[in-house]
Design goal:
This protein is α/β, with parallel strands linked by helices. The chain is built from eleven helices and eight strands. Helix 3 (39-50) crosses helix 10 and helix 6 crosses helix 8 (163-169). The N and C termini lie far apart (46 Å).
């Protein structure tokens, strides 16, 4: 039995475990160590979340790890930022009463008609995108095998949301692997610039052989991410390198069980790009 949607802000990702219906999220460093994610991919998502960008985690089949992965990546949201679980009816009244200095990250269990009261669907999805347009980013999941299918879920039938609203609200899409041979983990990370397929830019993808992530050209990644805040591509590349190195050091350090006493989100807070 899933927990009902909390009608309040919660301070930490761990507070969402029962509501999201997972047995418990892996620590981010553990996911990198196991090969489900890699440090550069996580650094790229971290760059976006640090700039209050939205993230959709998607996969075609059930039990691919969407909710677990989304919950794991919430650790990258800047410390001190609260979370607002969104399910069933969109909580417009609650958002209107929140102090501007406490602007939360919205967390959507799933964009789907599957479980009323827990998932988000219909006009409430439009309300979610309008909130994103108004400065409230979200992290959510849905069933889709490709970034293009994620966009189609919002812009195609039955939702048929305005293409400009969709393109302006979906920033990053992380698709998960779906075959047993590849195991659980990320398959592709893309940025959404428009609802047309040329506007969906894939930055990295899992390669079954030689079983590693292949990344787009650094300059392409720098130019794409730089549009988040009009940053110079060279500055973006440098910051991504710093974030990647920090994560690699964190993974190495936390491989020792005695070093895992510190909360991961607190350790991430120590990062400060030069």
């Amino acid at each position: 039995m899933f927990a009902p949607t909390p009608g309040r802000l919660v301070p930490e990702p761990e507070d969402l475990i029962e509501w999201m219906g997972v047995e418990g999220a892996f620590d981010l460093d553990e996911s990198i160590r196991m090969g489900s994610l890699d440090a550069r991919l996580v650094a790229t998502i971290w760059y976006g979340l640090a700039r209050r960008r939205s993230l959709v985690v998607a996969a075609g089949p059930r039990l691919a790890g969407k909710s677990t992965t989304a919950l794991t990546l919430l650790a990258l949201v800047p410390a001190g930022t609260p979370f607002l679980p969104v399910g069933g009816a969109f909580p417009a009244d609650l958002l209107n009463s929140i102090d501007a200095g406490s602007a939360p990250y919205l967390v959507v269990n799933e964009v789907s008609s599957g479980i009323p009261g827990r998932y988000l669907w219909g006009d409430d999805v439009r309300s979610l995108l309008l909130a994103r347009e108004g400065g409230l980013p979200f992290v959510g999941t849905l069933h889709a095998s490709t970034p293009g299918e994620v966009v189609e879920t919002f812009s195609g039938p039955p939702l048929m949301l305005d293409p400009e609203l969709v393109a302006g609200s979906l920033d990053m899409v992380l698709n998960l692997r779906e075959s047993r041979r590849d195991g659980h983990g990320a398959r592709a990370l893309a940025l959404v610039g428009s609802v047309e397929r040329p506007g969906i830019r894939e930055l990295m993808r899992w390669a079954p052989e030689p079983r590693r992530f292949k990344h787009a050209d650094e300059r392409e990644i720098g130019a794409a991410l730089g549009k988040f805040d009009d940053s110079n591509p060279d500055q973006v590349i440098e910051e991504l390198s710093q974030r990647t190195s920090f994560l690699e050091g964190l993974v190495a350090r936390r491989s020792d069980a005695s070093a895992r006493n510190t909360r991961l989100r607190d350790e991430l807070r120590a990062f400060n790009p030069a």
